[in-house]
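Deviation from plan, reported transparently: nicotinamide-adenine-dinucleotide complex.
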Amino acid sequence: MRNILVTGGAGFIGCNFVRYLLEQSSGTEVTVYDKLTYAGRLENLKAVSERFGSRYLFIQGDICDAEKVEDAVAARHIDTIVNFAAETHVDRSILDPDVFVQTDVYGTYVLLEAARKYGNLRFHQISTDEVYGHIEGRRRSVENDALAPRSPYSASKASADLFVSAYHITYDLPVTISRGANNIGPFQYPEKVVPLFVTNALESMPLPVYGDGKQMRDYQFVADHCAAIDLILRRGRIGESYNIGTGAEMTNLAMIEILLDELGKPRSLIQHVEDRRGHDRRYSLDVSKTMALGWEPDYTPEEAIRATARWYRDNRWWWQPIRDGEFKDFYRANYAGRKKLEPQ
Ligand code: NAD
Ligand code: TYD
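Because the crystal trials were delayed, the predicted structure below was used instead.
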């Protein structure tokens, strides 16, 4: 029996991963440990709790709270920690970086210490392609590239990666790291670009495109990311990092064309606005190392965008209360003062 602590399991990727794990392997028990910030929602795990109640438990807690983390690890006989818990939105990190340092850096350190104290537990860190920074020309990032983060969010994630590697080297902690490209799919808080633009379009509101909209991202379906993480947990080489994505990036404008087409909404909703500070123009991952473990994504970016647009169209019950709540304050803070730009 594997006894896995999934931190941040009430968030977007975490809740999809928990369901994936419980569906895939009957020999796995999962404890979700989550603070339930604005981004963490128990309803994301409702179906999991109803279906897998005997193999699943939820604990509300902060990964910065060492005592509570250690209590959870001991009480649940945890043998593996998978750390999804983080502050995750670049725009929020620009508005207020403090909590990013707390959770993403200090919180990861607390989890590493707990893993060390309880017998060098298996530790997997969920990281991001953003730690490599903006990638020039046609180059793709490989796992041993130098980290060059450029936003408070990516700097905090890169710092966490360095701690995870340092615990492997110094204490022989059995760690792996995965660096994922942009995930999309069910249960993503509608602040990230695809669910934001889909829900804005469904409300016939403008889509605020930063700058010229020619920035490049690799949009992967969340289920593909979850499958790769599970494989790395089982077959990844200890001490190594793995990139996860489709390996095919597209411009934000191309992504918008696809989602507007899927929803039958007009291009006139596109509104170019003042760019994000320090905006990374391109991320691009070489994913061959992860594919060599025996994984490949089921969805192309276009299929992932279309499937995501349909999920939000069909699940207004999930996102409407979010958009009516805290989201409104964030939207005002991030968008109200932003200059509108001429069509480009
Ligand atoms: P999310 O914002 O949807 O969820 C984050 C979860 O962490 C929430 O449930 C929140 O309540 C929890 N959390 C936050 N602070 C916490 C704390 N101090 N203690 C305990 N729980 C806390 O994020 P997501 O998009 O699901 O991302 C999950 C992980 O994947 C993050 O580490 C992120 O950096 C990484 N990642 C995300 C993407 C993406 O496109 N979303 C891509 C690559 C990597
Ligand atoms: P985002 O979903 O925030 O992810 P990332 O962490 O990769 O930046 O944004 C994805 C891309 O979409 C990125 O190039 C910024 C752009 N973007 C907009 O143009 N407008 C928006 O309102 C948002 C949130 C993002």
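The radius of gyration is 19 Å. We consider this an acceptable substitute for the interim report.
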